[in-house]
């Protein structure tokens, strides 16, 4: 096989794997502290492998409705969030406590240092294909509290593992 043909076969295989099976993603913000940190590299499984397997507590890559301004243009942006509410459930937040169908949600993954959030949200019943997602850093997260519940199609992948953290980009000062 020629080198060029081998290159294109490998490229096509890599694109198919990325599109249909899984991908690596890098955390860019602080909305998932202290579970995920900026520059963490995660391995994620893509649909259709995950649609029937999304569970409460799963960390997912999702796209919110609309587009976001970045680099002088509007582009779709992917966010990392935790699934809190499942289809058909009623979600409510009372003084910072998430209630699912009236019962407090146990969230052992939350760090009290990042959860001083004490606001409330009235009850909202999710549709048959809607999920409610929130960041673990409740004080600094743009999530379903502000953008609403996400359709199943907005969930792009489920995070399965944190692989490693990229080194800091800070440059050393020259003397």
Verbal overview:
The protein has 175 residues and is mainly β. The chain has one domain: Umud Fragment, subunit A (Ribbon). It contains two helices and 13 strands, in the order αβββββββββββαββ. A seven-stranded antiparallel beta sheet has the order 1-2-13-3-6-11-12. Strands 9-8-7-10 form a four-stranded antiparallel beta sheet, with no helix packed on it. A hairpin with a 2-residue loop joins strand 4 (68-70) and strand 5 (73-75). The longest helix has 19 residues, at 3-21. It is globular. The N and C termini lie far apart (52 Å). The mean pLDDT is 83.
Key words describing this protein structure:
175 residues; mainly beta; Umud Fragment, subunit A; 7-stranded antiparallel sheet; 4-stranded antiparallel sheet; 2 helices; globular
Main beta sheet strand tally, sense and closure: 7 strands, antiparallel
Any low-confidence stretches, pLDDT <50, length ≥5?
A: none
CATH superfamily (homologous) name: Umud Fragment, subunit A
Cα-to-Cα separation, first versus last residue? 52 Å
Separate helix tally: 2
Helix content: 10-25%
Q: Look at the structure and give the mean pLDDT.
A: 83
Determine Rg (CA atoms, Å): 19 Å
What overall form do the CA principal axes indicate? Answer: globular
The CATH class assignment is Mainly Beta
What is the strand content?
35-45%
Order of helices and strands: HEEEEEEEEEEEHEE
Examine the coordinates and then state which fold CATH places here, giving the name of the CATH topology.
Umud Fragment, subunit A
Chain oligomer state:
single chain
CATH architecture: Ribbon
How many domains?
1
Helix/strand class: mainly beta
The overall strand count is 13
- Strand arrangement within the widest β-sheet reads 1-2-13-3-6-11-12
């Amino acid at each position: 096989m020629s080198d060029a043909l081998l290159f294109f076969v490998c490229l096509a295989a890599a694109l198919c794997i990325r599109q249909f099976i899984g991908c690596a993603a890098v955390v860019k913000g602080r909305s998932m502290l202290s579970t995920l940190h900026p520059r963490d590299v995660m391995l994620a499984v893509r649909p259709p492998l995950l649609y029937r397997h999304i569970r409460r507590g799963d960390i997912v890559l999702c796209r919110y409705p609309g587009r976001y301004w970045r680099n002088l243009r509007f582009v779709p942006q992917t966010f990392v969030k935790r699934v809190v509410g499942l289809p058909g459930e009623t979600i409510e937040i009372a003084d910072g406590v998430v209630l699912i169908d009236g019962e407090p949600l146990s969230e052992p993954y939350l760090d009290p240092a990042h959860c001083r959030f004490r606001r409330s949200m009235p009850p909202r019943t999710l549709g048959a294909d809607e999920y409610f997602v929130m960041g673990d850093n409740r004080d600094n997260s743009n999530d379903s509290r502000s953008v609403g519940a996400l359709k199943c199609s907005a969930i792009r992948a489920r995070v399965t593992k944190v692989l490693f953290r990229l080194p800091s980009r800070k440059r050393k000062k020259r003397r």
